[in-house]
Amino acid sequence: MSEVRTAETKQIKHLDLGRQLQSIRPEIDLAIAGILDKTAFVGGKPVEAFEQLFASYSGTSHCVGVGNGTDAIYLALWALMQSGKLAHGDEVITSTMSFIATIEPLYQLGLKPVLVDVDDTYNLDAALLEAAITQKTKVIIPVHLYGQPCGMDAILAVAKKHGLFVLEDCAQAHGATFNGCGVGTFGVGGTFSFYPGKNLGAFGDGGAFITQDESLEKTVRMIANHGRTLKYEHDMFGINSRLDTLQAAILSVKLKYLTAWNEGRQKIAAQYNESLAGIDGLTLPVVGKNRTHVYHQYVVCVADRDAFMAALDEDGVQTGIHYPIPLHLQPACSSLGYVQGQFPKAEALANQCVSLPIYAEMTDEEVSRVIVSVKKYFSV
Ligand SMILES: *Cc1c(COP(=O)(O)O)cnc(C)c1O
After folding, report:
1. Within 10 A of 378 (CB to CB), how many other CB atoms are there?
2. Does position 1 have pLDDT exceeding 90, yes or no?
3. How remote is the CA of residue 126 from the centroid of ligand 1, in Å?
4. Which of 110, 185, 195, 353 lies in disulfide reach of 88, CB 3.0 to 4.6 Å?
5. What is the pLDDT of residue 2?
6. 169 close to ligand 1 (CB < 6 Angstrom)
7. Within 13 A of 182's CA, how many CA atoms are on the CB side?
8. Alpha-carbon Rg of the chain, whole angstroms?
9. Tens digits of per-residue pLDDT, 160-170?
10. How far is the CA of 204 from the centre of ligand 1 (A)?
């Protein structure tokens, strides 16, 4: 990386959270001040208000604010176990191309991850599901990777045929839709992360579980709050995983802008799609039918990724890799017995994927500079 940059080569960050904050700073300051004035930092009205806003934004009836997106998955599966719908040793099918958090809670709950390969959209290939189903399969976790919903109709059809639960990992897809319905509303529930870099991000960790099932909502809420029914009465042992009041107040402000921010991402994606189409050696993202992609990441594939990233870096364009190692090849998963070559599409993606800068506050000039830099690498 060169030390000195002129104004023209000022670095374009892969993600610039500072700009987003700047655009809404007065409102955020007010929201934070409101919480400080009341010195009520756990639970209370601001959390309830955000839960209602987020449920209605998502097109569902119930939302539970939790500590983070990983816990949202953990709590949802735990609640299914608590209601006798899932048991120790049962199998859960998901995509090998995800962040480790999708399967981490399975380890804690004694459930077994069963991984499948991706299709051209980089999401779980629904055509591979049936071959992965055994007597022990109980749940499918579709991950709406990079902000693109999975092909939910095909997944739901398989789930229905085999009597499986569908729990959507929506950590990267706030606001994305399939057939006009929000992600997280198709199965038994949906889990969200509000990690700062997500499309809807808090100023720290945060997460949510959404569902239309009132009894599941109650169980998740109880487990997330020490298994308590009354202040000092506990039906069971749970954990402490709640959405902080400060984070809820911040998220309520930011939620108002989410649609516009997602549209900003979509506009930039459209510019990339148009300007970078047809370049030999560059694979652009493929969007499946009947869905809106909210471009948490804009991921391209390039054979010589290192050279490509270095060339863009020289031009002041910062890029990322999501993710360099698919789950089946993670050292943490070695006991599952998967081998190199088992999921060729995910492995090719892991070796070649590069995430270009994308966020609503990018200027047209910056988008153009990214495009020029990519074209320069391919000499077009
Ligand atoms: C971020 C993420 C999570 C975990 O969310 P945290 O809030 O970081 O715990 C889970 N699944 C996917 C696909 C993610 O991208």
Report:
1. 14
2. no
3. 22
4. 110
5. 47
6. yes
7. 23
8. 21
9. 999 999 999 99
10. 13
Q: 114-167 pLDDT, tens per residue?
A: 999 999 999 999 999 999 999 999 999 999 999 999 999 999 999 999 999 999
Under 8 Å between Cβ of 149 and 183: yes
Ligand 1 in contact with 199 (CB < 6 A)? no
Please report, rounded to a whole number, the percentage of residues in the chain having pLDDT higher than 90.
Answer: 96
- Residue 250, ligand 1, Cβ within 6 A: no
**What is the structure's pLDDT at 131?**
98
Q: Where are the alpha helices (DSSP H) in 208-302?
A: 214-224, 245-276
For the CA of 70, the nearest atom of ligand 1: 9
Average pLDDT of the chain is 96
241 lines ligand 1 (CB under 6 A): no
Show the CA angle centred on residue 68, arms to residues 337 and 147, nearest 5°: 75
pLDDT tens digits, 6-27: 555 689 999 999 999 999 999 9
Counting atoms of ligand 1 from 1, which one is nearest the CA of 101? 10
| Beta carbon of 191 within 6 Å of any ligand 1 atom | no
Shortest-distance Cα residue to atom 7 of ligand 1: 69
Residue whose entry in the numeric block shows the structure tokens 């108002």:
256
- Which atom, in ligand 1's list, is nearest to the CA of 193? 7
